[in-house]
Write a structure and sequence with these properties.
The protein has helices at 30-39, 59-68, 93-99, 109-119, 132-163, 167-174, 197-204, 210-234, 260-270, 296-300, 313-316, 320-326, 341-346, and strands spanning 2-5, 11-19, 22-27, 48-51, 80-83, 102-106, 127-131, 241-245, 274-278, 291-292, 305-308, 331-334, 350-353. The protein is of the alpha/beta class. The chain has 3 domains: 2-137, NAD(P)-binding Rossmann-like Domain (Rossmann fold), CATH 3.40.50; 140-215, N-(1-d-carboxylethyl)-l-norvaline Dehydrogenase, domain 2 (Orthogonal Bundle); 236-353, Rossmann fold. It starts with a strand and ends in a 5-residue tail after the last strand. It has 13 helices and 13 strands. The strands form 3 sheets. The chain has a 6-stranded parallel beta sheet. Helix 1 (30-39) runs parallel beside helix 2 (59-68) and helix 8 packs across helix 9.
């Protein structure tokens, strides 16, 4: 009675759009197309089809509906067609599938109502009805707004270094204002949503999205900024050995998709650095060209410097004195403000933090 399309919508490999000299990534909608085509032979009157995959605006009505109508049935009249974005966090998927609010966008009001009735079977959160294209925009707007806000935090980190300011202190003070909530900077933006979804807006309307485009450029460029900071601390990077702590795209998850930490490691390797990476949530990750250490001790052994890339809880709990005994490295680059500088200095480490100028 119901068909759900929940397939990946990655970027097209090696293909870009270009408008006014600005290159942008393009969505690969082949999986959505294939899924819709697979439904056609089985589609019957009164069935419900829901697209959940994050997609550029108008995908439901311009791509999915015409494919399904090859069945001889009309979307909205003979069968119900909706878009309902998946909005869950890795590690909390089952709970959030049930508890989170749901946006149901139908190609007709009757389709939205049918979608509501379907999700009401298991969703305890509020269910909100709208049209399909609005629902598509809702998901993209959520992640794009966060991407833009992270971009300004990352630019603040660069400005702070230029002006000799501690960006973490400055953000903390600015956030005392009742109407200000600046996010934290870091080595970049990753994951399968925030670093991807804004490009769908840029692809759909490049002439209208200069701010979104610029934010993506800032966040995609942040790993290069991190590498430049390491260069300033170590001088030449050739033949240096660095222990990279954390490869996940965010703290306390095992998701490495689009992770800026992985990009930082690759950039360091391009500079001639021998990097040993330790990701406690995915120690056996198979990442092309990256040496994964089986444990923290192995990553630290023989290192010239320690690079903290992810604010995992267990990294915050590391004891400086114990780390000093496990490695000859005495230089730390903390990109996420996880470690107390004074405590690590007391244990004999020189500490450089992202967004803190000399």
């Amino acid at each position: 009675d119901a068909f759900l399309i929940a397939v990946p919508t990655p970027f097209q490999e090696g293909k870009f759009g270009e408008t006014d000299g600005r290159k942008y990534k393009l969505a690969d909608m082949r999986a959505v197309t294939s899924a819709a085509e697979a439904i056609v032979p089985h589609l019957r009157k009164g069935n419900l089809v829901v697209l959940e995959s994050t997609s550029p605006p108008r995908t439901t009505i311009d791509l999915v509906a015409p494919i399904l109508e090859k069945s001889g049935l009309q979307a909205g009249a003979d069968f119900y067609l909706c878009y309902s974005p998946e909005r869950v966090l890795p590690g909390q998927i089952l709970r959030e599938l049930i508890e989170n609010a749901r946006v149901i966008g139908g190609v007709t009001p009757a389709s939205a109502k049918a979608g509501r009735e379907f999700y009401a079977v298991f969703v305890k959160g509020e269910i909100l009805e709208t049209d399909a294209t609005t629902a598509e925009m809702v998901k993209l707007m959520e992640n794009t707004s966060r991407d833009v806000n992270i971009a300004i935090a990352n630019e603040f980190s660069r400005l702070a270094e230029k002006f000799g300011v501690d960006v973490w202190e400055a953000i903390s003070l600015a956030n005392r204002h009742p109407r200000i909530r600046i996010l934290n900077p870091g080595p970049g933006v990753g994951g399968h949503c925030i670093s991807v979804d804004p490009w769908f807006f840029v692809e759909a309307a490049p002439e209208l999205t200069p701010l979104i485009y610029s934010a993506r450029r800032v966040n995609d460029g942040q790993p290069h900024f991190v590498v430049q900071k390491i260069k300033e601390m170590l001088g030449s990077l050739h033949n240096k050995k660095i222990a990279a702590l954390g490869l996940a795209y965010k703290p306390d998850v095992d998701d490495l998709r689009e992770s800026p930490a992985v990009e930082v490691v690759h950039l360091l390797q391009n500079e001639g650095v021998e990097v040993k990476a330790w990701e406690p949530f995915k120690p056996n990750a198979d990442l092309q060209g990256i040496h994964m250490s089986p444990n923290l001790e192995s990553a630290l052994r023989d290192a010239d410097a320690i690079l903290l890339l992810v604010n995992h809880t267990q990294f915050r709990e590391l004891r400086p004195a114990e780390i000093a005994e496990a490695t000859k490295a005495r230089l730390i680059v903390d990109t996420v403000n996880a470690w107390n500088k004074a405590e690590w200095q007391k244990a004999g480490f020189q500490v450089a933090r992202l967004g803190v100028g000399n």
